[in-house]
Each structure stands twice: as C-alpha cells, then as structure tokens.
Amino acid sequence: MRAMIVDDEAPARSELRYLLEETGRVEAITEASSAREAVEKLMEAKSDVMFLDIQMPKTSGMQLAEALHRLKNPPAVVFVTAYSEYALEAFEVDAIDYLMKPVDPERLGQALDKVQARVKPQQQSHSSVERIPVVKSGRKVLVPIDQIRYIEAKDDYSCIYTDTDRFLSTISLAKLEQKLAPHGFFRVHRGYIVNLEYVEDVEVISSGILQLGVNGIEGKKISVSRRRVVALKRALGL
Fold first, then answer.
1. FRET label pair with 121: which of 11, 213, 217, 236, CA 20 to 30 Å apart?
2. pLDDT tens, residue by residue, 18-39
3. Domain Response regulatory spans what residues (predicted)?
4. What is the pLDDT of residues 147-171, one digit of tens each?
5. CA 14: distance to chain centroid?
6. What is the pTM of this model?
7. What is d(CA 123, CA 228) in angstroms, rounded to the nearest whole number?
C-alpha cells in the first residue's frame, strides 16, 4: 500500500508517518505540506490512500478531496483532523474514514483495513508493472522486475542490480519505490530499495543497526535505516 500524508504542520506529518511505519502495512510514504504539493506529487507517482488534514492554508483538505473525487482513479481519502464537525461533509466526498487527532493506532489500523478492501480489487484489475526500462551499453533494455535484487541511488541515477548484471536508470529512487512497492520491494534506506524475496539473511551489528544479505549478490551488505527497522521486520515476518 502506498500512502501520502497531506498536512501543513510538519510535526503532525512526522507523527502520522511514524504510526504508519509501525503498522508494517505501508510500503511507501510521501508527504506534502499543501494541496498544491499533494497534486504535484500525485502526478509524479500514484498513491493508494491520502491521509488528509482539513484546515490548511489556501486550499483546504475538503476542497482537495472534492477535486480528487472527480478523478477517474482517485486515491482513497482518510481525513485526519482535530475537528469533529466536518465528519458529515467528509463522507459526502466519499472519504473512506475520519480520524481524530491525536491518532489512535487501533483506529488507524481499522482505517487501513478499509483502504485495503478498496485498493486490492483495483490492483488486481490493473496491469502490473512487470519490467523497468534501463540503459545498458547505450541501449534501452527492459529488465523484468522479478530479476531485480536491489536498487541503489547513484547521483542522478538509480543502479539496478540483478544476480548477473548492473543497469542504470534515469528513474529516481522515489519513483521506483512507488512503482515497485506493490511487488514486494521495500525502501530500507534513503539510498536503497530491496526485493524482499531475495533477502537471505538479516544481521544485527553494533548499536542495533541491521544489515541485509541479498541472494545472488555475494559480499554485498545493505544497511537498514533505524526508522525503517520495525516496518522491515514486520514485512519479513521477524
């Protein structure tokens, strides 16, 4: 599941991001501080659910939800607000849930259940991303995603590794994260995305930092950022 948090207050975005990561059910999270930024990011990469504050400067969350509702395939909307009086209006724009701040983890889990019930049929009906365009020896090559072990950010490029080769892609790591998250890929670090199917060992090193060993990539260890450890363990069933 891919989520976007839209709130003009940074602490509120950080708190909700933390709660979502703790659930282990959201593979990719983007943030926006305004309705305009949310639309821009939605155009760059699809989100399955938008956690939307109502009272924001210029364009309110309710106005943004009304605009999204007119899209052909809009993200599910979950309002997250400190005000209860907008609940009826929220459901008139087809909001899937309405959470009060501070967000209760159990209520957040219930909201994710509702989102999953709506998103899953849509994912099954759409053709999935099966190959990624890359550059090899000056040629465009399409690499099947099930052959990708991990992806590393390199300056303005992304390096895509299979068990036998390395390819360059001009697609940013953020966009690759959005495209590949539904296919079992996980952003373990700001510089790495890993195909969880090929994780063969998890090692705890000093200060509780995790390193991953990847099947087919001998000698390579990938560090996991501290804020992603809990979500990764849940994704791996640890």
1. 236
2. 999 988 888 889 999 999 999 9
3. 2-116
4. 999 999 988 889 999 988 999 888 8
5. 14
6. 0.55
7. 25
